[in-house]
Amino acid sequence: MLFEDRPQFEHNLREGLRAAKRKAKKEKKRVAVRLNMYSDIEFEKDIPWIFTDPEFSDITFYDYTKLPLADRRLAVEG
What we know:
- By secondary structure, this protein is α+β, with helices and mostly antiparallel strands.
- It has helices spanning about 5-25, 45, 50; strands spanning about 30-35, 60-65.
């Protein structure tokens, strides 16, 4: 969906993250989100706001990808 309808993908992602935060707060837990379960999307380049938006700063994001770490940089790092 990211490449077919990016605005809808980002909307769904934001709403999903917000829902996870509400549930975690209710259950007194922390939120951890695994990116790239079935893809190698470079979220740090394609959707960098998930790492920089203060609304999601309390979420731990982790990733599994075959892309080498040396080739990946946050877009905000330049």
